[in-house]
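Fold this complex.
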Amino acid sequence: MYDMKALYQARDVADAVSLRLAHPEAQIIAGGSDVLVQMREGKRAGKELISIYGLDELRGVKMEEDGTIRIGSLASFSHITRDPLIQQYLRVLGEAVDQVGGPQIRNIGTIGGNTCNGVTSADSASTLFAYDAVIELTGPEGVRRTPIGDFYLRAGKVDIRPGEIQTGILIAKESYENTFGHYIKYAMRNAMDIATLGTSVNVRLSADRKTVERARVAFGVAGPIPLRAVTAEAAAAGKPVSEELAAQFAQAVKEDINPRDSWRAARDFRMHIAVESARRAFLESVKLAGGEL
Amino acid sequence: MSKSVGKSVVRVDAYEKATGRAKYTDDLCDRSALIVKICHATIAHGYVKSIDTSAAREIPGVVKVLTCFDVPDIPFPTAGHPWSTDPAHQDVADRLLLNRHVRYYGDEIAVVIAEDEISAVQGVRALQVEYEELPFVLDVQEAMKDGAPQLHEKYPNNILAHTDIRKGDYETARQEPGLIKVEGWYDTPTVQHCHIENHGCFAYEEAGRIVVVTSTQIPHIVRRVVGQALGIPWGKVRIIKPYIGGGFGNKQDALYEPLCAWCSTQVGGRLVKLECTREETFVSNRVRHAIRTHIISYVRKDGTLVARKFEAFSNQGAYASHGHGIVAKGMGAFPQLYPCDNLECDCWTVFTNRPSAGAMRGYGIPQAMFAGECHIDDICKAIGMTPLEFRRKNLMPVGYTDGFSKNELYSDTFNQCMDKGMAAIDYLRKYEQYQNQTGPIRRGVGLAVFWYNTAVWPISLESSSCRMVVNQDGSLQFQTGETEIGQGCDTAYSQMVADAVGVPLENVHVVSSQDTDVTPYGTGAYASRQTYIGGFSIMQTATALRERILRIAHDQTRMPVSNLDLVDGNIVRKSDGRVLKTLGDLATEALYSLTDSQHITAETTAQIKSNAYSFGCSFAEVEVDIPMCKVKLLNMVNVHDCGTLVNPALAEAQVHGGMSMAIGYGLSEELKFDEKTGKPLNNNLLDYKLSTFMDHPDLQAEFVENAEPTSPYGTKALGEPPACSGAPAIRNAIFQATGVAIDQCPITPHVLYRKFKEAGLIED
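Structure:
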């Protein structure tokens, strides 16, 4: 039994927007794997809910005319992992979300919910940061697009305005083309866990595969919200592929990250794991891209 | 005659459980039940000054609010021990139904009874509690210091109990020149049982008595405790135990049955239900004692143990529950496992402001084996002897007899088990291969043995009762007070009954549920006692039943009893093997006889005044990723000598489950507390890192079957032993791989990070 005051089920996106305006205090619910847990804990007890879970138009992964990959906000983790477009162009994202919780959670949980929850540990978030994803929101004024880095405001808080719902996540062709990536979820067990640290790296190598054209790295749980390690990215750009470069790249992430001390893990431990994860994820990405070490 | 014992027959409850038809406590509760929700204290130590219930009582659906100011002033004990008529041996009665003196963060201070769960939860949130806070203490040795916060008036320095063992002359013996001193402090964590079904119960009054249906391992003991807690005659209490989803010792305590029963009496005897959430299960049921152990060994270079000191500090938490029994059992193993002529052993059980520790699978032995078996490998390192060689030299020898329990080691169990385990994991080759590795990824193989004994004699009463009732078709029902808690005793007992009576297994029907109004007395499931203790009453009752059947057979066939037998459900003339009639025909004729109608039943109680050693070992192979501070468990083997196997498939499953618990104990599980507030930090299944099967290798269970001569079926303990030696085997494997001795569990990446840094294996 859940202590909910009311449940409004949206018929379509427009209806969801009207419901949001009519019930500004209501919480949006998609798969419910976060919201219902919070409600049971008492954090959202007695609240109204607006369910958008029935909006099939927000499911699926598509490629738009300009090559942009659009992931519907209600795409489940398991659908994303198995999607042919994801497997071809953004394999690392499929692998990252395949490490969320367990099979049941991956079937019910959505990427929209994962990002709107605003937590730094979300398994999709670091890879979306590393690919400069754009968040699409639909509201009374129509569609608004915002870079994912701006969408995350602070821990647990994202930029969803009155009347808006998140309707899609977009990744531009320029961002994903010819890239290969690797995600390391560092957790205390191999399933049913949240990340102690999430590290997502992707690289684009030169045609001869000897030089790093572009490298990107983003972390979850290295700060209050997911973040990019731009110093490390700059350190690798244009450099010849090598083990030493991986080590330099990894050491450079320390300039950018700011994990905290908590009972879940100490700051120095997270720093150490971030460096080692960055090194390994970089090397793995280079290997996937056909680079020789 | 076809034998059932020794075969891997299908569990008698397999179909019911696999299809979801088996009824558990909550399935049986009528929907009209009022719901009880508990208000738990949000301070670690202090007094409740007042509770304002007015807002809670205004909530629609709330029926009644009861607080610590309303309960009867009757302190009661909760431990699932047989009662002792000697006051000196009775369990400590130290808690009330709701407590004004709050002794841990989570203590129960009030309840809200409502028509539905949401109203009850809202009611609890609406209670306004005013506290007088006191300083609190979480650490066991801090709690013993003068001036530490005091939890219970009668126990100065919070010491619930202290016991010791002395042998020879430790102080003199350790002066021998040339001895090598090895010293270590070993810490084990607070962990929880994490059975899949949270504890829950429901209660109602009927004909002036209180009925409680509950998820418990010990229905007859709970009956006594409910009677004590409510101050009513024990005969006024009826406890019913349906199928339960695991217990592992947590439900070897009276948990919320007394409170639930009392709540019913406060609402006119209406049906009330109290179900724990997982969060409550972690904090407000029972946990395993965290024990800190200090061991000093003086050893000759040839591996001879000359003098040893053992000190253990057991963190009892807020209330006595099973109390000193746990650490005392662990200490008891110390002089026996590696006999040594000069010993000084002491152990203390100490109250702290943590959740109450009670029974948990192993009852002090997982803690004692972690400390003891880590220490053995520390000795091996110090004197340059292999872990195998040292154990072969020093482990309890064949013929060893314990003076107190009279337990005897009849067979060369340890060597047989180690040999079998070594072969299974290819130990010797791997041990050589993994010596002196370098590089970031290293492997190791570790060994640990365990000591265990079966049941609780002579510390407590051991008795078991059994009833058998023959039906007209020659099938029979049987009942015991020993409970099925998922371990499979209903199946093992059915096999034992079939063989002892002489009927086919399919004609044996176990009455799985215990109901204290109708089930013969037995103390329940604990102490790995089920097949051993239950075996006595089953054999004795089957013998009585057979005697009665054969007397009737004599009346019906005119053959002398001495020439009759009951085999596979048939009355057989022994001289020529002819089947004279079936048991069904005999029973039908006996029951409907117009001259001498007989209902064929038998019921006996067996008192058991023996006990049996049950030993074995674990081997673990690990791969340690040093930069990532991670351990991957590659292989694990447990070998047990639990005597004759009643059902090999069930025995194997039992071992797998215990190994899984040992993996969590060794690598990931720990209930944590905020040092500033005493608040539990991770009392949920996300933050408490119970290992998943993604964290397990294929688990291998092997057996050495030395039949136990004192047991009617040749059996000895297997319930708890599988959880006892896995964690130190993993630790010793990590030790071999890295050279880093880690003297605490769980060995998490956080711990490895610190230790590897200290050892210079990683740098930032």
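Residues 267-288 of chain A form the longest helix (22 residues).
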